[in-house]
Design goal:
It is a single chain. By secondary structure, this protein is an alpha+beta fold. The protein has a domain at 32-59 and 79-276: Biosynthetic peptidoglycan transglycosylase-like (Penicillin binding protein transpeptidase fold, Orthogonal Bundle). Helix content is 43%, strand content 11%. It is built from 28 helices and 20 strands. It has a five-stranded mixed beta sheet with strand order 2-1-3-13-14, covered by helices on one side. It has a five-stranded antiparallel beta sheet with strand order 7-6-20-19-18, with helices on both faces. It has a two-stranded antiparallel sheet with strand order 4-5. The protein is elongated and about 135 Å long.
Length: 777
């Protein structure tokens, strides 16, 4: 019996011995694996410098003057880092409760959690701490399915986690982890996730919203609220349960929050969607590309606007931009409906083109075909011209723009050639709004829909200015001949003789209605009603060269021909240049070049660029004020009078033919309408003391236009956009858009009070009605 006991004790001691040998070997093996990982045996480990400055791709952010993010430029990572201070406490609590409850008590590795995961094989929770998850995201990568590779990765993860704990505070680790995580659907990092899924900044997240985003951290592809809403809700509720378990929230609050449905406010962030798309594309393709080429980094390398996390502070006001886009949308949708009504194949067999032969139309379509992306791609694939042309006549499924759809898109089947003609039927527009005293551009709309119409008519487009160019002729006359708005000229057909001012034959412009009153009228009345005969007399007196000189000094370019016909706006100008030029009148004669960017910072907040205003004195204060006074006449009794309509006419309120209601603007407004030949272009330039806005509307080709002046004039096509935009601006008093009168210079030698002149002209008339009809004001 004693021998048996002794033998059993010896066997037990052997077991104990082997247990400690195996345990010690395991510990030594773990230490060895840990050391090998630290020495880089399993793969290159990040250096201290790399740990201090981990490499992540950061999107460049376009920021409005009122602090809103207009959009971002990125390749694959739509990431914008935010500081710990900008994270809501409910988000931090949800993260710690569900991912790492002992986060503040360990140094990167939670031994208790690791032992639990080892004993229960991960069935009672994982062992990875927040720091380890950050290490995996930054340096280790996707977990391998191979067990040996996974052990190596885990060892590297542990080493890096402990090094991260020595390099960063707990708060920095949390913010880095939330900034680096990919939440899916282009939501890289917590800021993008909050904006894309809930349309708000992280600091504004509700508790249940934070819980949903934290739940996605386990697997954003699996817990995707757009595809698996119920599964994502269950995961969110698990996070809320953890928060109640660790007493971050009360049990009753947990129950009420778990009962809520997921209420997404999905706002996809892409280059073709969102606010100020045309402006952002101008920044990306033009302004920033030029700045990057001219301003390299200290080491000579160029900044990468898709990866370097620049912050571009712009002059755009997001509220005014929204007002502008809504005004364009509201008017253009109605205008297009009327245009379709008037240009059906039944009414116009060559729709949407007017007055063109089949050959001319074929030429337009052929040119559009060769300029299309489809032609470029097929040409790049080595296709012959005949093969490419044939493909344009083969039907295919496609998504096209449609004003009548809720999403402004519809799926259809048509040939690429038919789609070209279809898009030709849509009227285009451009609008820019600027503060004349600073040159700050406040709103920029380059078309009706960037996704489908990517040509930016603000900066790329240039069309005949029509009567919106006439103020520059009047400015030259007032500046050089000391005319006043009250001076009068006869409304008779006027011819500029051959060879004079470079003409080869006499130039005899007609009034738009082909009629001439034969009576004297004030300059104010002549400009308000776009009387061509008076404009012709003025340019003959001052000479085209003087007009061109003033226009150039006001930013309208160097290619304006010095010929009399420019008086009627035959030269092409862009909305961008026209708004800058008109700003000179509102800014007391000082031209300020339009400004879009005020400051650029790198990802660390270092200022890389600050703008310097570009200004030029062009007109005296009194000449500028006289011009403003002249253009106020346009809205007081001229082509822009519909801005003022509030009265009853035949016992019904006057309504705009397009928008369907009166604008009822009563404050001082200076402006000018413009309409070109055949109603191809409609313009309106409108000014109040601290805001100048230009609007153009027209077809992609000049042959796409309304038949009648009733709908095709600038007062019908462009003015309503300005009116709707300004009404929206005035509804928000925080914008500070002025309703005051324009400032008159203290010493004014140019007469702008036409009372005495009108009385003298009245004596020349038989009746007061003649006076009102002929000279006005």
């Amino acid at each position: 019996m004693a021998k048996v006991k002794k033998k059993e004790q010896k066997s037990f001691l052997v077991y104990i011995k082997w247990f400690w040998i195996l345990f010690g070997s395991g510990v030594l093996a773990a230490i060895l694996i840990f050391l090998l990982a630290a020495w880089g045996a399993f793969g290159e480990m990040p250096t201290f410098e790399h740990l201090e400055n981990p490499s992540t791709n950061l999107a460049t952010e376009i920021i409005s003057s009122d602090g809103e993010t207009l959009g971002k430029f990125y390749l694959e990572d739509n990431r914008t880092d935010i500081a710990y201070e900008d994270l809501p406490q409910n988000l931090i609590d949800a993260l710690i409760a569900s991912e790492d409850i002992r986060f503040h008590n360990h140094a990167g590795i939670d031994l208790r959690g690791t032992l639990r995961a080892f004993v229960f094989l991960g069935k009672r929770g994982g062992a990875s701490t927040i720091t380890q998850q950050l290490a995996r995201q930054l340096f280790v990568g996707v977990s391998s399915r191979n067990i040996l590779e996974r052990i190596k990765q885990k060892a590297m993860e542990w080493v890096i986690a402990t090094r991260l704990e020595r390099s960063y505070t707990k708060e920095e680790i949390i913010s880095m982890y939330l900034n680096i995580y990919d939440f899916g659907n282009n939501a890289d990092g917590i800021r993008s996730a909050a904006r894309i899924y809930f349309g708000k900044e992280p600091k504004d997240l509700k508790l249940e919203e934070s819980a949903m985003l934290v739940g996605m951290l386990q697997n954003s592809s699996l817990f995707n609220p757009l595809r698996r809403e119920e599964l994502t809700k269950r995961k969110r509720n698990m996070v809320l349960g953890q928060m109640a378990k660790f007493e971050y929230i009360a049990e009753s609050k947990k129950d009420s929050l778990q009962a809520l449905e997921i209420n997404l406010n999905y706002n996809p962030e892409s280059h073709r969607e969102g606010l100020a798309t045309y402006f952002r594309m101008y920044m990306q393709r033009n302004w920033l590309r030029k700045w990057v080429n001219e301003n390299p980094k200290p080491d000579g390398e160029k900044y990468n606007i898709y990866l370097d996390g620049l912050k571009i502070y712009t002059t755009i006001d997001s509220r005014m931009q929204k007002n502008a886009e809504e005004a364009v949308e509201a008017h253009m949708k109605n205008l297009q409906t009327e245009f379709f009504h008037q240009n059906t194949p039944k009414r116009n067999p060559t729709a949407p083109f007017l007055d063109l032969t089949k050959g001319a139309i074929d030429t337009i379509m052929w040119q559009a075909m060769k300029q299309s992306d489809r032609w470029r791609v097929l040409k790049g694939q080595g296709k012959s011209e005949e093969e490419i042309k044939k493909s344009f006549h083969e039907k295919a499924e496609m998504t096209v723009f449609d004003w009548n759809s809720d999403s402004y898109e519809k799926d259809t089947i048509m040939t690429p050639m038919d789609s070209i003609r279809y898009y030709k039927t849509f009227l285009r527009t451009a609008m820019m709004s600027m503060e004349p005293q600073t040159g700050h551009v406040k709103a920029w709309v380059g078309g009706v829909d960037y996704k489908h119409f990517q040509y930016d008519n603000v900066i790329q487009g240039a069309r005949q200015a029509g009567s919106t160019f006439k103020p520059f002729i009047y400015a030259a006359a007032i500046d050089q001949l000391r005319y006043s708005p009250c001076d009068s000229l006869p409304d008779n057909q006027y011819c500029i003789e051959p060879l004079k001012h470079g003409n080869m034959e006499a130039w005899c412009p007609k009034n738009s209605d082909g009629k001439y009153s034969g009576k004297n009228m004030t300059l104010k009345h002549a400009l308000a009603n776009s009387v061509n005969t008076v404009t012709a007399q003025l340019i003959d007196k001052v000479g085209p060269g003087s007009v061109v000189n003033i226009a150039r000094n006001m930013g309208l370019g160097d290619d304006i021909p010095e010929v009399p016909s420019i008086a009627l706006g035959t030269h092409d100008f862009g909305v961008y240049d026209m708004v800058g030029a008109y700003g000179t009148f509102a800014n007391q004669g000082v031209y300020v070049k339009p400004v879009m960017v005020t400051r650029i910072e790198d990802k660390n907040g270092t200022v890389l660029y600050e703008y310097t205003p570009e200004t030029k004195d062009v007109l005296s204060k009194e000449v500028a004020y006289a011009m403003v006074n002249l253009m106020e006449g346009v809205t007081q009794g001229g082509s822009g009078t519909r801005l003022r309509h509030t009265f009853a006419k035949n016992q019904t309120v006057y309504k705009d033919i397009i928008t369907g209601y009166p604008y009822e603007l009563t404050n001082p407004i200076a402006g000018k309408t413009g309409t070109t030949q055949n109603q191809s272009d409609g313009w309106f330039m409108g000014m109040v003391p601290n805001l100048v806005t230009g609007v153009w509307v027209g077809g992609d080709n000049r042959s796409v236009h309304f038949k009648s002046l009733l709908y095709g004039q600038g007062a019908s096509m462009a003015l309503p956009i300005w009116a709707l935009y300004m009404k929206k601006n005035y509804e928000n008093e925080e914008l500070g858009v002025s309703k005051d009168a324009f400032e008159e210079p203290e010493e004014m030698s140019i007469n702008v009070d036409c009372t005495k002149v009108l009385e003298e002209l009245k004596e020349e008339r038989d009746t007061e009605d003649d006076l009102d009809e002929d000279i006005g004001f």
